[in-house]
Amino acid sequence: MSNHTVGQSGAVPPPAAPSSSRADAGGRAPVQDGPPDWRLLLAVTTTVLAWASAFVVIRFVGPVFSPGSLTLGRLLVGSAVLSVVVAGRRRVRLGRRDWGLVALIGVAWFGVYNVALNAGEQHVDAGTAAMLIQVAPILIGVLAGLLLGEGFPRALVVGGLVAFAGTLLIGVATSTGDADLVGVLLVLLSAVVYAVAMVAQKVVLRRVPGLQVTWLACLVGTVATLPFGPTLVTEVRQAPTSALLGVLYLGAVPTALAFSTWAYALSRTSAGRLGVTTYVVPPIAIALGWLFLEEVPALLAVAGGVISLVGVSLARRPTRPPVPGTAA
Q1: Domain limits of the chain?
Q2: Could you tell me the pTM of the whole model?
Q3: What is the rounded average pLDDT of the residues 261-281?
């Protein structure tokens, strides 16, 4: 007798076609190995453009707002926007583990990351900061490979190294040599907490929708940075309209919108592959600075940007699905 199961019609069902997706470490959320759909591409593009623009706006409002008050200001705006968006939507009840991960994301990524990066850029130049912060995608790839079972695909490793080399060129080209140990440590701290928070977010997104995770984490980050409230009130009273508009933009677009599109993308692809896309941020930030701040980039920085884009393209190449074996 055949080992195949016969259906009610008596026909033997054909073997299942090979799928281009695989389950992640938890076996719950499918991770696409094939080419991403247009919604995933749109989400990643929106996130990268918004985060690149944030570097330009932060540099614009930096002389007016201190690191802590700037973080609290943008999180207050982001929390308000996200609260309006999630109003009336059905929400998933979180378990104790989910709440712990959301608290980690809110404190680490929304709170510590922003304050440390804002403070670090007061001690180091933009080029040095660009080199240091791009340690994060490497850490994400390592943590995702070890903790989430994503492994270390050859294309991801090679593409990540090429993209990192491009970022190093950007840093060398734009560095002024003005860096002290405090600034370096602050930027490295922001890179580490960013990597840890992203891996934690990948885990909680298996059960909780991305928009809900972003909203709750933003609220947690806002509460964590409330001690900067008195400073924010004082600086808002003295700030020009252009700086206030900059804070509103940072809260609405790079925070509320971009973190939501990032969560959407992270729930549909691997953490390692998504993390390497942030190597596109420095070249775009250079282009935006050239356009809006009239900061003409060095030729070496342009070359580094091109190399970073090539590396990201290599790292994002889809993995070929395994060829199904022949039945014995």
Answers
A1: 50-315
A2: 0.73
A3: 78
